[in-house]
Automatic annotation (TrEMBL):
A single GO cellular-component term on record: lysosome
Main location, first listed in the record: other
Reaction(s) this enzyme catalyzes, per UniProt: 2'-deoxyadenosine + H2O + H(+) = 2'-deoxyinosine + NH4(+); adenosine + H2O + H(+) = inosine + NH4(+)
EC assignment: 3.5.4.4
Necessary cofactors: Zn(2+)
Organism name: Leptobrachium leishanense
Membrane topology: Peripheral membrane protein
Cross-referenced InterPro entries: A/AMP_deam_AS, A_deaminase, A_deaminase_dom, Ado/ade_deaminase, Metal_Hydrolase
UniProt name for this protein: Adenosine deaminase
Keywords annotated in UniProt: Cell junction, Cell membrane, Cytoplasm, Cytoplasmic vesicle, Hydrolase, Lysosome, Membrane, Metal-binding, Nucleotide metabolism, Zinc
């Protein structure tokens, strides 16, 4: 991808990006050295060689990437706060004015989490402490870089015993950066078999916590149906495979369901066939569906938001008008309270030259 070729130099909104997939490689090196944690190499080049990839890999191979660098960050207070702060800085450089960043608090903890992830020794950093630290980093980043940042806490499909705590953390930190709950991981583990997630989402509905679910990324349309009918998802993470079920697709178009799509990610994870010209996003575009463009895991995919926007221009015939529409849809579908959502929309309308003067 060419550098510095920004296809859309106007304010953007991003709704689907993972904090633990967006860490600066320099920061991983710094904390690995400080904490004496072994990485596959000691230079930036070595690290990126092992962590990034450019051709599709299996889910198992993709997940193995986290094993490489998460031990350098997880369980460390300073590291967790710093990755949140630097995340906001990264988004400011990409022209993002509002972002919802998601992560599993349990994956960054080393205490009161079963099992303790990444082969860490037990420490004293609980999932609750993790959320507090991320919140601090995001809030400081907001002030420093003039980007509004909110967070989404992830349940993991293979860890239904974590989900009850995830929703409790969403409630505790509601409006203190946390705006929603998510479900991520292997879609073949449905909620029928894992009622822990269903219960957590029921609690989210009851407590007014917003809901998104990774569904139909690699999994079939029935996973999307389950996300909406059982988990009461208000947005769908990815959702590409919805087009294989025309009845469901039509229903979701009518409902104006929001799809958080990630073009470059969908290529590298093998979620979609490699030909971008026939990508489900081209269908979404044609049907004027409600969707946003997102990076997902830019560290691992060696990307920035510009890469996704460039793919959309090069292979999907995106115009300035479509980028505006996509970002306005993202703002309309974000999980901010109504008043703040209106303010965000107003900012976009202004920047896009769409404001009708109301001056007296
Ligand atoms: Zn994701």
């Amino acid at each position: 991808m060419e550098k510095n070729a920004s296809p859309f130099n106007k304010p953007k909104v991003e709704l689907h990006v993972h904090l633990d997939g967006s860490i600066k490689p320099e920061t991983i090196l710094y904390f690995a050295k400080k904490r004496q944690i072994k990485l596959p190499g000691n230079t930036l080049e070595d690290l990126l060689h092992h962590v990034c990839y450019k051709e599709p890999l299996s889910l198992t191979e993709f997940l193995a990437k986290f094993n490489i660098y998460m031990p350098a960050i997880a369980g460390d207070r300073e590291a967790i706060k710093r990755i949140a702060y630097e995340f906001v800085e990264m988004k400011a450089k990409e022209g993002v004015i509002y972002v919802e960043v998601r992560y599993s608090p349990h994956f960054l903890a080393n205490c009161k989490v079963d099992p303790i992830p990444w082969g860490q020794k037990e420490g004293d950093l609980t999932p609750d402490n993790v959320v507090e630290l991320v919140n601090q980093g995001l809030r400081e980043g907001e002030k420093a870089f003039n980007v509004k940042a909110r967070s989404i806490l992830c349940c993991m499909r293979h860890m239904p015993n974590w989900s009850a705590e995830v929703v409790e953390l969403c409630k505790k930190y509601k409006n203190n950066t946390v705006v929603a709950i998510d479900l991520a991981g292997d879609e073949s583990l449905n909620c029928e078999a894992y009622p822990g997630h269903r219960k957590a989402y029921e609690e989210a509905v009851k407590s007014g916590v917003h809901r998104t679910v990774h569904a139909g990324e690699v999994g079939p349309p029935c996973i999307i149906k389950e996300a909406i009918d059982v988990l009461k998802a208000e947005r769908i993470g990815h959702g590409y495979h919805v087009i294989e079920d025309p009845v469901l697709y039509k229903e979701l178009l009518e409902k104006d369901m929001h799809f958080e799509v990630c073009p470059w990610s969908s290529y590298l994870t093998g979620a979609c066939p490699p030909d971008f010209t026939t990508h489900p996003i081209t269908q979404f575009k044609k049907d004027k569906a409600n969707y946003s463009l997102n990076t997902d895991d830019p560290l691992i995919f060696g990307s920035t938001l510009d890469v996704d926007y460039s793919i959309a221009v090069k292979h999907m015939a995106f115009t300035e008008e479509e980028f505006k529409r996509v970002n306005i849809n993202a703002a309309k579908s974000c999980f901010l309270p109504e008043k703040e959502k209106k303010e965000l929309l107003h900012k976009l309308y202004e920047a896009y030259g769409m404001v009708i003067s109301t001056a007296l």
